[in-house]
Amino acid sequence: MSPRPAEGELESTSELESKPEPSAAARLAFKDLVIITGFSGAGKSTAMAAFEDEGYFCVDNLPSEMIRSLVELFRHEGSKVARAAVVSDVRGGSYFEGLDTILDDLRSSGVPHRVLFLEADEQTLLTRYKETRRRHPLAPTGSIVEGIERERGLVLPLRHRADFVIDTSGLTAAMLRRKLAEELLPVRKGRLAITFESFGFKYGPVRDADLMFDVRFLPNPHYESDLRPLTGDDPPVRDFINRDGALDAFYELLFPLLDFLLPQYLAEGKAHMVVAVGCTGGRHRSVTIARDLARRYSASEDYLVEAVNRDVARAV
User: What is the DSSP pairing of strand 211-214 with strand 303-309?
Assistant: First the structure.
């Protein structure tokens, strides 16, 4: 009998391979493993959240040596996990270096898997780190640029092994989620993914909108000193916008229009669409309406709904 590994040690690949093979039924029950890797700051957390929302069992920051053990559990008789997504990257330290070997092992074992590699140009990565004020995992006390360069040497050899490579430069989190839905996520027959996105016309329109509504005709809370610091998510702002019943009157026309249009898009096979709502600054009126629309249509099983407020965090 092989000795048990000491506490904190990982079982070797050869030891894992010596375990009894799962039954054919158990192997067939497990349908998909997605391994997400790539550059830090390129959107791996957003990608994992997208898979989790679609019912995948997700694990973040999983050392590569543990992927095989996790798959063994999923393929074990009685497991209820059919699809899983794991993020494995340089945060795993020395364990990350073994990911290439693990991919060979998965392929030879016949485990259904896909590799997603996320990247972005250096300036985009720098900007994202500055916005979040987080340290790069490979440069905890040094510059972000140094960390990116060190990471490049570790992750680029995996790029050619990826089934999907996505450059997230210029993509918002919502745009990345839509791209993943189009290219990697299972198609849910009869469901339409809808993003209700608020924005400010002073910062430019939403570039990928399918429908766009200009709501600058509604009362503007910006000119009220006590409401200006608030957003469209705050009840006093909504009350002000609807002070003369203009918002309710707008909804009496807007809701029937969307109630008619959305099923038509669904019937023609459209999978994703963006409904943009714009006001002057994207902080008050458009935010209220995007939120109300998301709440209304998220109740339907026909739609997968998210609300995005593009400009709400900009300075007042």
Answer: unpaired
